[in-house]
Model the fold of this input.
Amino acid sequence: MDIKKHLLSTAVLFFIGQSAYAQSTKKDTVTKEKKIEEVVVVGYGTQKKSEVTAAMSQVKAEDMAGLVTASFESQLAGRAAGVNVTTSSGMVGAPPAINIRGINSINSGTYPLVVVDGMPIFTGDTGGYAPSNALGDINPSDIESIEILKDGAAAAVYGSRAANGVMIITTKKGKKGKFQLDYNTYTGLAQVVKQFDLLQTPDFLTISNEKRTNAGRAPWAFGTEYNTNWQKAVLRTATQTDHNISLQGGLGKGSYFGSVGYTKQDGIILSNGMERFTARFNVNQEVTNWLKMGANLGVTRTEYQSLNSGVNSLSGAMANAVKQLPNTSIYRADGPFGYNIDVVGTNTITGRGQNTEHIANNLPNIMYVLNTNRLQSKVLRVLGDVYGEIKILPSLTYKLQMSIDRSQNEGLMYWNAFHGDGRGSNGRIQNSNTTMERYNIQNILNFNKSFGEHKIGITLVNEYQKENQNSFFGGGIDLGDSYFNTNVISGSYGTPVSGGGKTEFALISYLARFNYDFGKRYFFQGVIRRDDLSSLPKEGRVGYFPGASLGWNVSNESFFEKAKNIVNELKVRASYGRVGNSSIGNYPYMSLYGPARYGDSNGLGYFQMGVNSLRWERSEKLDYGVDMSFLGNKLKVTLDYFVNNIDEMIQQVPVDPSLGIPDNQYSSNIGVAKNKGWELTVNYTPIKKDNFELNIGGNISLINNKITQLYKGADIFPGNVDWGNFDRFYRVHKEGYSMNQLYGIKYWGVNSANGNPVYYRLDGSLVQYNLNTRLYNVFNQDDPSNVSQSGKAPENQLLGNTIPKYFGAFNLSVKYHNFDLGTLMRFSGGNYIMNITRREMLSQNLVNNSKEIMGRWQSPENPGDGWTPRLMAGNDPGVNGPSVSNSRFIEKGDFIKFDNLTLGYSLEREFLNKINIQKMRLYIQAQNAFIITKYSGADPEMQVNGLDFNGIPRQRVFSVGLNVTL
Done:
């Protein structure tokens, strides 16, 4: 395979500020000394890093440069303490989950607020029929830095939207001076990290027929002509490439930055991929000595191709592929369209070959489905702002910023009529259009004044935000011909289908922030924000969100001079803030009516009970931190202890069915929870010379989550998630425990006398499930063959927490002459996973199984591994446990993962000068390189709320890249 050389983007990322402050120990002598200080974005402004008293982290562009990911947030994993980023699917376009200092809600949103160049933007899925991550519309190569506001004092500037933390993204701005052009490119090959170890044909025949004979029936599996790896067939080695060209510079008193980018990523599973075109232009101009103006504009066109990824769907790619029979073929010369498909009555099923029966559940030939069906989303995203800043006085400025975030998503769904999803409807074609618009206006007044040792900063903000979302879909079933598969065509279908919706949202806010610095030693920041939110009833839609932080730079005290030989810098800080969670839907408080049918008539139906007292969820955040440096500032340490008290969580309150309330429940603010923990970040640069530099860093977060109050202390079962056509209870929210506890039966093992599975009851006694009678009997370890005494079914109990108790990362970078080497290693643990995929691969139906089933009980003389019961066709619930969590399949989620390994070489400067190139760097990189874990599944991060069920596998990417600067 030809691999192009591409480029990667490395960017210069610090906002550089200048400070003129130095204090002499002599009373009558003051010497001013200029030094460079790093500046960070803190919301509605910037602040020198040395003056920051809140808990926040910064991730720089160079830390993420060259990583082969579709969206920037995937690159954040392990980069900042307290920020846990997990990607549960290998599907290109699927958004990762981001939790800042734990999970902060049961029923409402848990995603952080994301702000780009001052504009709070849309997050989540933007519509269409393929997963379309809103954050994937931002080109990672255009990002200068990402600031993460973690504590209440820092996040309180965003009030009702900040309970889950805030991520502030600053895009690149031009620098005054010489013109610079950068070209960055890479090409990568993506492969599946781990495939499931499935039975091949000889073992499949043995196991399948043993299932049948144990059930007293004739064998059903025959034929050794084929040994098909269906899993391998739907997976592939995919090419992923990226090109970015940017130019920047300055003209007079202005600067500019422009870029264009192209990204194409094929997924490791067939029919999945993404193609993105991006353009950005940022400009800033000092018009006069009292007026600055600027604009930031980003335009993105992204197309996602997807597939049915339903975890229990008949055409769900992985759910289907791992079940297909290895002794049957994918293609057949005499089959329909050349595929191995049998027509049985009005149905079409994967061809059975020489087997006496077809595959269980009439599973379709997944290759035909992937090659014919289409799920697509095309997104046009415009994200931009214009601003003007007036210097009213030397210390007083006014800034007006107007921003827009507009996303239009065009979706296409086509299901082939002959086979798979579209068989029952005789084909389906559908188009959709989802438009999301958000307008934001900010009026910002800044006052900054220094006199003597005092420095005062005051910021006043008035913000307006308006949001509209409109969606519509139309199409039909009973397609006339498969030719009509690229768009809805009038007259090409029999029965039309359509629908749509519209929502609106508005926010009016006022903010005041006060900063005080005395002698670079004592710092105070106070903030109060008032939000008026349309999502809440009139009586309670106004909320006030205060925050305050204190800092003491001990190292600037005169008495600390002697200690500086050991401790170079020491700053202690503390903060408090109250913030809200407004991700509660647009109309949760209103009594709502919607369309309903009665027989053949259309009408209105009552489907939501109004609650005039409803309000946003609230969080009170406390933080105590210390920043230190040693060994001539070579070793830097940051330590934080935090407590997040979450109050007034929205919970569904059950009511008597006789009241006629929809779903027999209504929403109310009655839940209470708490997150608390520690964060430690260490960075060490023991060597920094012209030809040799060594940097070592790491961070670790320890988090404890607990629910302290629920409605009447009653448990909540969030596990009734619709997977296909049934609901399963796997998890529970319970007072006194962390959210999403695994909940089910506790497994003991296999009765060696008869192969029955044995379980614990709550009183510690044991019962066995009699596979012959399908009833429970008492199990006596001293008399295991006795099945005469009736027993009671095992009760459900708590089986483990699903939230990691610790996570972090270690990074290493080395530069030696022209070579550079870098690595990032992540780790996580303390959580448990219900491996439903593993259980499904032990099915007792006519489907393929994992090799784990070879350890089954066969006889008292051959009891197997003591963990896998006797096989019996058609008795899945008995052999593998009922449809709840079963400790037999619960595993620890601990892992150590080498996320990135990079080796680069920069060409000699003397050679580059001859061809007028400033820099040229070549590199090779491995992402998701390898993992150390005892978890038996594909990847311990491939889980959602502790459940691993037939997800698209994660990918490993090997890439080569090039960075050029002219």
About this structure: The longest helix spans residues 201-214. The chain is about 5% helix and 50% strand. The longest strand covers residues 454-479.
